[in-house]
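INTERNAL AUDIT FORM
Audit reference: QA-55
Scope: verify that the stored structure record matches its stored sequence.
Auditor: D.O.
Record contents follow.
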Amino acid sequence: MKILILHRVPYFKIEYARGIPHDRHEVTYFGTDQALATLPDGLRCERVSRPGTRSAYDEARQWLTTHPRTFDRVISVSEYELLDAARLREHLGVTGPRVEQVTLTRDKVLMKQAAQDAGIRVPRFSALPDLLHPHARAPWQGRTVLKPHRGASSENVLVYDTPHQALTAVTEGRTGVAALDTGTGRADFQAEEFISGPIRHFDGLIQDGTLLLLTASQYVGTCLRYAQGQPMGSYQITCDAPTRTWVTRALAAVGIKDGSFHLEAIVSEEQELVFLEVGNRVGGADVVATVELATGVHLPSYELRILLGEPVADRLPAPPAGARRYGWFVHPGHHLAGQEFHGLDGTGAFRASARVVAWNELQSGARLPDHITYQAGETVLAGIVASNTPEETRDWIVDLFNSLTVRTRPAAPTPAEQVLA
């Protein structure tokens, strides 16, 4: 089989060779030099570099114009390039999810409408342009979230006390988000009712509409607070039959039938799950690692097998003996951009804890990132912890966050910054 991979996510996060036998298939990786550099030496494949100045779809089409060839599969596991892969599949006539299907799992307005139409509770919401009409009124009165339709990592997400405050900030151009304040990107945003409550994420595998694997976790902190500079994590909890039924309904509502999924929901005051969003992909941070530790299933490997058309239901490994509750934790550094990392205080007992499965601390002297990232080796701290109960795992993560502080100092200017100065 000839397989084209739009390669963006670092190889070690996916480990493509665990799901695609490279000795049996002709695999081509299409990505920037930075992305291709993450491929291991000796991997049997073709590496095709792209500039990265335009979309993966546009640059793939240009490459194929001068180097015509056919493929049996076009695959992307990056949230940012799922639509590029779908467009390329349609352009080449390759089997796989089409643009309309992928759009439903990328656009937060469309997916919430689909979930609502299926009888699943969602936050009340509206496309932002609809609320900016002179006589429009939001169907809610309390706290209001502004966020991009297709954003990720809670970037450019804003919270206001009322819809009126949110809309006034937009119309007066004082949100602090250029796309909103200049008016050029308002069509790409939505307004949403803020619902208080714990946020859970559900991760697993589905094939031909049948749920094969499901894990449930609850966040410590939120993606929004992480974007604002606070640590976050999550810990695995029990997944009961009603939850499994709810997840199955939610996936069906948005047309997710094959592959991995990462579904988020809020637990309301009435203890009802409220659909927030879903992706037809694996979760970020250390979701893949903690799911594998708990279940024995490496999500990307089995997703790739599903995307190649292989039945996997009877091939999933048995879960490890002695069930433990795993959690992951990550401390941001992007809010300290322009600084160098010089260590953590208050973490000695945690670093030496027998519960620690992984502890990835940024190298002292490293320049802190200027973008939101959950990636070990880029952010201040990322790791995995294990305990016998969800509560023990949660409390360990909470205690870590309450104890640690980050030491920094101003970073030396880069050569490019010296030239600009």
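Auditor finding: record pair retrieved intact. The longest helix spans residues 390-403.
Action required: none
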